[in-house]
Amino acid sequence: MKTELVIPSAAVYERAGEILRRGGLVAFPTETVYGLGGNALDPDAATKIFAAKGRPSDNPLIVHISSPEDAENIAYTNETYYKLAKAFMPGPLTVVLPKKDIVPDSVTGGIKTVAVRCPSHPVARELIRVAKVPIAAPSANLSGSPSPTTADYVMRDMDGRIEMIIDGGQSEIGVESTVVSLTGDVCTVLRPGDIIPRELYEVVGEVAVAEAVKVPSAAGDNPESPGMKYKHYAPETQLILLSGEREDVISYVNNEKRKKAVLSYSEDTGKYKDAYVIDIGSADDPKSQMYNLFKALRDVEKADADIIYANLPPENDDFLALYNRMIRACGGEVVPCLPLGEGGPLAVDEEFTI
Ligand code: TXA
Ligand code: MG
After folding, report:
1. pLDDT at position 178, please?
2. In this structure, are 250 and 332 located in the same domain?
């Protein structure tokens, strides 16, 4: 199959809409990351999405709609949904609700709930409007790779696997939407994103965060969000996260003799020696780090390093999405760094795995 890379125009939306209505796949930009879209009401389209991504088909897809009220067609909504919709939609929030029968089981991986999202990106919105069908779309990467934040990264993963990629520039947020479930008693964050628990709390009063968010869960677990159980976002080279004071992290990396790459805070880029350094943003600026993270995880392969290091993000609300993505990308490999002289020759405590 030939994959067309196009820039948005009225004619492109029409053609993309046709492709979707007849069961084909179109990748498109959203404010979070690029999505790999198919008609959410067509059971075969979902099957094609799983095949194109190489993704296990028990991992449910998010259904994208053009206005919050359109959730009525596919899900049983409630008052909390509309409170969240008023505050955050269109935008980077996905809400899990009980599903209506019109949504094929192949879209939800056989479960009785459906994840609903109304994106704010103008290209995504126009595409859904013109297609006249809700669009099921996971991130447009091969399963296990970092989510793509540009059309070029989508092309690298999806060339020959889908019909069209619409180029809308670099995704403004850079990590996937916040996923919350409204199927239990309390609004529960299943996947953190740009919208943080504190902001949700201000709207709905009570918010829980699923335990799986902070843990790189092992295969075979049964976390609330099936997507949590797969190793995600991982570069091909092993990534190790370093905890501790910034200067101790820098000394640790500078003591490493292997060919190394570092995802560095902007303030520290000049302090690493003999390393391939990628700036991921200022230490206290989670938004710029989110914007840069997936690009960095892809670009770092160019270093052809033996090992990749990055700082373990702080465990607070503002950095929760970064913590979640990075702990998965490293597969739980976290090494605490101690001040020089306190932890042996490499100033390192014993390695441990979360
Ligand atoms: O920002 C985003 O959400 C992007 C863009 C394209 O919209 N999409 C995205 O989709 O990240 P995906 O498929 O890569 O991630 C969807 C996540 C997975 O972790 C999945 O398990 C979870 O949402 N999910 C989907 N439906 C669910 C459901 N019914 N119940 C619980 N979790 C669900
Ligand atoms: Mg994904």
Report:
1. 98
2. yes
